[in-house]
Design a protein that fits this description.
Elements (H helix, E strand, L loop, with lengths): L1 H9 L7 H19 L4 E5 L2 E7 L5 E6 L14 E3 L2 E3 L3 H14 L7 E6 L10 H9 L3 E4 L8 E5 L1 E10 L15 H13 L9 E9 L9 E10 L2 H12 L9 E10 L8 H13 L7 E4 L4 H7 L3 E3 L6 E2 L7 E3 L3 H16 L2
Parallel strand pairs: 3-6, 3-7, 7-14, 8-13
Antiparallel strand pairs: 1-2, 2-6, 4-5, 5-16, 9-11, 9-12, 10-11, 15-16
Length: about 350
């Protein structure tokens, strides 16, 4: 397992590098041949490669991704091991989870498949409809995203992203500022209105992120551009925020608002996860593992899409470690085998119904 993980981590695969993503899927297929006896099917979904090993119409889907957030050259060294901690780009999110799933498929002969996409880290724009389609026909979707200190994930926030452009009018900031329409002043009003939309009761965060305004220091800005990140455990609250952002009214009526964006992933709610979680706890106990525990988290995954399609989902079945999207990303390699055994037993339990 460690050799397979090292090979995958050393083959850097940032989402935006399509050639690298193709290479990592081919490498994963080669590893599958060694571990499982046959190569994966490599499918093309909207121009991107997808790894598929197993049944053509699976009742149980193991869902993973092989792309990472890291541009090539972000880690030096690419791979290191100190004690039980292995480090490298994408090791925690989520190449270790993929390796655990691959080994969990050893000896599985029923209607199950391991599927890994290559665009999860940028919102799954090309694969989300594919994920919904396969999930709608499945009994269970087991997501190999990393655990939270070993806990599986039974809830995830839904996400939405918007961009607000405010159009004003340029003029000389010193000679005749009164002839301009200041987009920076207007975007300041918009930022305050937008941040007021958060709702702590539903874990709804409304966060202005990148902001660009103006061209030169002596010109009244004629354009300001704001990006907004929104997350919530409640779809109704996401809809409330969506309506409020799209309904923003200028404080200065001479400015013009241009608003784009919308929902990205719906929430993963506990109604879609708790039955599988309880089953996983029972299976863990039967094979002599300690209780898993569960948690709800702010980050989204492809499990959100699977649940939206009506599937029962359990997320966070992947690596134990820490540091997703962070320079200290690491995995506890002493847990790889037990997490893989748990997944294997859970697949068999589901197939034996």
């Amino acid at each position: 397992m460690l050799a397979a993980l090292e090979a995958l981590v050393k083959l850097e695969s940032p989402t935006e590098d399509l050639d690298a993503c193709r290479d990592v899927v081919h490498l994963a297929s080669d590893i599958a041949t060694r571990v499982l006896g046959t190569p994966a099917e490599i499918r093309e979904v909207n121009g991107r490669p997808v790894f598929w090993w197993g049944a053509p119409n699976p009742d149980v889907i193991l869902l993973a991704h092989l792309d990472t957030v890291w541009p090539k050259g972000s880690f030096d060294p690419l791979w290191s091991v100190e004690g039980t901690a292995a480090r490298g780009p994408g090791i925690f999110d989520m190449k270790a989870g993929f390796v655990q799933a691959l080994y969990a498929m050893k000896g599985i002969t029923g209607s199950a498949a391991l599927i890994a996409t290559t665009d999860e880290e940028t919102g799954s724009a090309t694969s989300k409809e594919f994920i919904k389609e396969i999930s709608s026909k499945a009994k269970a979707v087991l997501v190999l995203e990393a655990s939270l200190d070993g806990k599986v994930k039974t809830g995830r926030k839904g996400t939405a992203m918007y961009q607000v452009k405010i159009h004003g009018k340029a003029s000389h900031a010193g000679l005749e500022p009164e002839k301009g329409i200041n987009a920076t002043v207007e975007i300041a009003h918009a930022v305050l209105a937008i941040t007021a939309l958060e709702n702590k009761e539903h874990g709804t965060t409304v966060v202005p992120t990148t902001l660009h305004a103006g061209n030169t220091t002596n010109t009244v800005p004629d354009l300001a551009v704001l990006d907004i990140d929104i997350r919530s455990y409640s779809m109704d609250d996401l809809k409330r925020v969506d309506s409020a952002i799209k309904g923003l009214v200028p404080v200065n009526p001479a400015t013009r608002y241009e608003i784009t964006g919308g929902f990205n992933r719906p929430p993963l709610e506990t109604t879609s996860t708790m039955a599988l979680y309880e089953r996983a706890e029972r299976v863990a106990k039967e094979i002599g593992l300690p209780p898993l525990g569960h948690a709800s988290v702010g980050g989204a995954s492809d499990g959100n899409f699977a649940a939206a399609a009506g599937a029962q989902v359990l997320d966070g079945l992947g690596a134990v470690g820490n540091g997703a999207h962070a320079a200290h990303e690491w995995v506890d390699i002493s847990t790889l085998e037990d997490r893989s055994k748990l997944l294997h037993a859970l697949i068999k339990d589901l197939l034996n119904d």
